[in-house]
Amino acid sequence: MKITFYGHASLGIQVDDVHILVDPFISANPKASDVDIDNLKADYILVTHAHQDHIVDVEAIAKRTGAVVVSNFEIVSYYEKLGIEGHPMNHGGKWDFEFGMVKYVNAIHTSSFPDGSYGGQPGGFVIEGERKNIYIAGDTALTYDMKLIPLQTKLDLAILPIGDNFTMGIDDAILASDFIQCDKVLGYHYDTFGYIEIDHEDAKRKFFEKDKDLMLLEINHFIEL
Ligand code: NI
Ligand code: MN
Fold first, then answer.
1. Does the keyword Hydrolase apply (predicted)?
2. What are the pLDDT digits (tens) for 87-113?
3. Can you name the residues that pair with 133 across neighbouring β-strands?
4. Structure pTM?
């Protein structure tokens, strides 16, 4: 499994030959100007919730690639009206896709589209690939619901928001890492806007002091599991 960071909360995940994009917010992110969205491959686009900073490029990429949008029922219905293929889910439900099992799990946040229309309830994704398992938390507060995840899935990596203000910050992400029983964390949802700027070295040190590993990727850089 290869995971590429495209800035903010945008990720590319490659499982064997299948390309998955998560929350593409690239064309409107000045920090991601080196990412060429016209060349991003996508068989599936996973969308955690409907906020602008998670969906801005969903329509264009889905129409170009024919990717299937996977999200909650309301978000998938929104894109189906635009002629985009979707796979609707809802909280607690899982589905076996060609690349692995996906479960849509709880997130504590909000989820309206930029025009104010209803975007369902926000979520995150647990993905059980053929060899590696990951958790993409989406925008969320720390929540006891996270303790449910390790009852069923042994995680190899957790992708957690760390920017604070709109989501968990560093201290709560460390507690989340305990709740999900995964000490290997890729941080996201930080530095994009003034409200969510963080001190990278301080964040990494706080994780290190708890015997945890916080990775912060440069845009377009990737890790392999
Ligand atoms: Ni949000
Ligand atoms: Mn967000």
1. yes
2. 999 999 999 999 999 999 999 999 999
3. 128
4. 0.98
